[in-house]
Amino acid sequence: QAFFCLLLCVPWGSSCPPSCQCTERAGAKAVLCSSRHLEEIPKDIPRDAVFLKLDANSITRIPSNAFRHLSHLEELDLSRNAIEKIDRAAFKGVAAGLRTLDLSSNRIRSIPKEALLALNAKLRLANNPWHCECALQEVLWEARLDPDSVQDITCHTAPREEYVGKPLLQVLDAGVNFCSVRQRTTDVAMFITMFAWFAMVIVYVICYVRHNREDTCKHVDYLKSLPSTQGHAE
């Protein structure tokens, strides 16, 4: 009877993943999973977790709704992993309450801006092999980045070789606008498409006129070849 009473007294969702350590920090649940050789985010993280450390593992992807059940989560550390892909809805469900998100020292080249711009958290994105593009520029402008780590967001690749190896903030301060480059590219593509359609219409009209002219000439030649009425009367 005492055993069943004990089971009923333990709140559901408070069990700790076997590869992690759960403790209290300032009266809040802290789940520590650092350096545990994890390749994916544990499925059984307690629902009442406020602090979650998943740093120094081998996680490669953050799937959609990975933390959706963690409605109390405030601090999330995913630094020093091997993360390459982050889904658009990776942080769905924790956007409102999350205060700190550390994605530094991973393998992230690009990230859907929707995944970060919905967050109110202070972001750390330093030391990733970033491809400098419009989406990353918008994140830099609109997201709440940790000011101490902004200078370490460096262009690993970029549309122009001269930007490679430079901090993104320095490139933008020099007047570069990756979003306007994309807009110009889109405008050029639309212009080429419209020109191609216009050229097709012109070619069609020319062919149509020539075809009608040939038919008219053939008809005139045919009429000329017919015996005249006067010749029949004689």
Automatic annotation (TrEMBL):
Sequence ranges assigned to domain LRRNT in this UniProt record: 15-51
Transmembrane regions listed in the UniProt entry: 188-209
Domain of life: Eukaryota
Bilayer topology term: Single-pass membrane protein
A Pfam family reported for this protein in Swiss-Prot or TrEMBL: LRR_1
Stored InterPro entries: Leu-rich_rpt, Leu-rich_rpt_typical-subtyp, LRR_dom_sf, LRR_TM_domain-containing, LRRNT
Any GO CC annotation of this UniProt entry: plasma membrane
Recorded family membership: Belongs to the LRRC3 family.
Descriptive protein name: Leucine-rich repeat-containing protein 3
Species assigned in the record: Eurystomus gularis
Source species taxonomy: Eukaryota, Metazoa, Chordata, Craniata, Vertebrata
